[in-house]
Amino acid sequence: MTPVLLVLAWGNPSRGDDALGPLFAERLQASLGHREDVEILVDHQLQIEHALDLVDRQRVLFVDASQSATGPFEVTALQARRDDSFTTHALSPHALLQVHRQVHLGEAPDCTLLAIRGERFELGEAPGAAALDHLEAALDWAQAWLGEPERKGTA
Q1: SS3 (DSSP) at 129
Q2: How do residues 40-82 score in pLDDT, each as one tens digit?
Q3: Is the pTM of this model over 0.85?
Q4: What b/e readout covers 19-32, taking b as 16+ CB neighbours within 10 angstroms?
Q5: How many Cβ atoms are within 10 Å of 77's Cβ, its own excluded?
Q6: Residue 26 DSSP class
Q7: Residue 94: pLDDT band with limits 50, 70, 90
Q8: Is 3 exposed, middle or buried (0-12, 13-18, 19+ CB in 10 A)?
Q9: Strand ranges of the sheet holding 38-43, from the earlier edge strand across to the other edge
Q10: Domains, the chain, with CATH or none
């Protein structure tokens, strides 16, 4: 059976604060232990194939580092739409939801973007101290998000 909650994190661990997505996934998995209702996936970038990972989910949390997010993080509800990434190798979360809509002829599950503030994205750098503080705050928020009651299919 497919877990109803999906956490899909991405980023490049070799590029400083861009490691926030993969670090988030690693630390969240360690804190959750084994929960049958949650699946955590990590990749370098979102790709068209990830549309299949949305099937049979109730909620999806997308997690990435962001230079434009206000610290420590921003949370945004996602809607399907085409954007400039729609024809490239890597997709934005919005474009991925649009692919899901087109392939499955229906709406994606409730999707949320957790953008963790990062500042240093240089190749070969470690994540900065401020980014790691932002990561901890984002993990605290995610624990509450995962604890919310299921919204779809409930009265």
Answers
A1: helix
A2: 999 999 998 999 999 999 999 999 999 999 989 999 999 776 6
A3: yes
A4: bbbbbbbeebbeee
A5: 8
A6: H
A7: confident
A8: middle
A9: 38-43, 5-10, 59-66, 110-117, 73-77
A10: 5-147 (3.40.50.1450)
